[in-house]
Amino acid sequence: MSENEVALLAKVPTGLYIGGEWRESSTGKTLPVYDPATGVELIRIADASVEDGAAAMDAAVAAQESWAATAPRVRGEILRRAFDLLQERKEEFALLMTIEMGKPLAEARGEVGYGGEFLRWFSEEAVRISGRYGQNPEGTGHMIVTQRPVGPCFLITPWNFPLAMATRKIAPALAAGCTVVVKPAELTPLTTLFFVKLLEEVGLPAGVVNVITTSTSSTVSAPIIADPRLRKLSFTGSTAVGQRLLAQAAQGVLRTSMELGGNAPFVVFDDADLDTAVDGAMLAKFRNTGQACTAANRFIVHESIAAEFGRRLTARVAEFSIGRGTDDGVTFGPLVNEAAVESTDAMVKDALERGAQLLIGGARPEGPGSFYQPTVLTNVPAESRLLQEEIFGPLVGITTFQSEDEAVRLANATEYGLIGYVFTTDLARGQRMIDRLDTGMMGLNTGLVSNAAAPFGGVKQSGLGREGSLEGIHEYLSTKYTLIPAS
Ligand SMILES: NC(=O)c1ccc[n+]([C@@H]2O[C@H](COP(=O)([O-])OP(=O)(O)OC[C@H]3O[C@@H](n4cnc5c(N)ncnc54)[C@H](O)[C@@H]3O)[C@@H](O)[C@H]2O)c1
Ligand SMILES: O=CCCC(=O)O
Questions:
Q1: Is the pTM of this model over 0.95?
Q2: 3-260+462-482 with 264-451: one CATH topology?
Q3: Other beta carbons within 10 Å of 349
Q4: Where is the signal peptide (predicted)?
Q5: Is the ipTM of this complex over 0.90?
Q6: Fewer CB within 10 Å, N side or C side of the chain?
Q7: Is the domain 3-260+462-482 a CATH 3.30.70.20 member?
């Protein structure tokens, strides 16, 4: 670790943040956080118990009434100050994400930009929560429709975008007037802890945001979800865990937002601009080392251009420089841990055993850290795991199609429905594909759609609800209707 990194880690709080105070776990236990590029332990942080989870809920409940009564402008200004301070601390946040998660510094800076925008966007939305007033149809009274904060929320976030996945939930919840308990992933808790320290600095009242970090997510989360005072569960993570949490949330009939897994089709038609398609593929596949819910998972390429597409993509992949994300010139970092490397490697082996052809990569480099080479496979048989399951690693699997109908059938042949990418220069065909693909989001001739102003979310088993945009704040509001008879 460099001196700079040691100095940064010394600034990151290692406790739980409950009711405006940093404290140790009630059991005194700690959990280690590792650098995925070296396997070295970075720091130890508090490992919350069930009692700590209950204390965090108590604090969120205690702060709910006064936070809901805080003027929207004041709530918005706190978020805006957080946005401004995050810009000042951009380099620190980027470095912290790189060392705890592995993404190269340039990508980490990009995430500070992206994640910060949710603070700015929802600072502006806080003052635009509107209602309706009107006469009832019978003319015998007046109808008032207002939007109220849903109440205390439990927010569970994944490790792949440690800042943006937290701000995409915390900012709209706070803007709406909700208090929260946040549980970041145990692999990347440091960014959330550092961010909450920033919220404290910009004057967020005690109890509005509470953070618990734990190595026993299921044990600590279940009683919070079962707590009758909780009103909303917002989860980002795998579909398997989302399904379990939905079942738990059903007991309390909780409002839920579920941002779950993806298995995105990346369809390239024979009329596509191939350079644009390859640029799109590089972004859609290799952003975050392939560890994004929006990652292109199945490359469905017209048979007449598949060989050329594979050649051009392979040439671009060969340009990656693999290494620790802090090192100069590195463009491709490690995967998050050893389990991710093993799962990626198993998918490559499965595809090769079934007859796929390797164009580049396909192995882990020598040396420490959880690295895997960016990999391109072609002629991948349909039954291969990498065309069936969410990969969450840097693998491109190319398969071919002949007709538009076949492309649609292949693209929709999944239980997921987060995003689809289509490359064509025929606008009418592009519009047909937008209508025919069963996804919550589409990229037409682009490999990146994420934006704080975009309603982000999926259909089918990719989830429920939307984050960001105008829709995002409504996930934290409930509609209340009142009738006042005419006197
Ligand atoms: N749709 C989206 O916006 C989106 C965004 C990012 C990631 N994801 C998905 O997340 C997955 C990768 O992230 P991950 O590996 O962190 O997912 P994960 O489901 O393993 O974990 C996500 C979070 O849930 C927690 N968790 C796990 N089991 C739990 C339980 N039983 N009770 C309570 N909490 C529990 C984890 O500690 C972590 O904080 C991929 O499937 C990816 O597609 C989706
Ligand atoms: O991993 C999923 C989130 C990706 C994004 O918000 O762009």
A1: yes
A2: no
A3: 12
A4: none
A5: yes
A6: C
A7: no
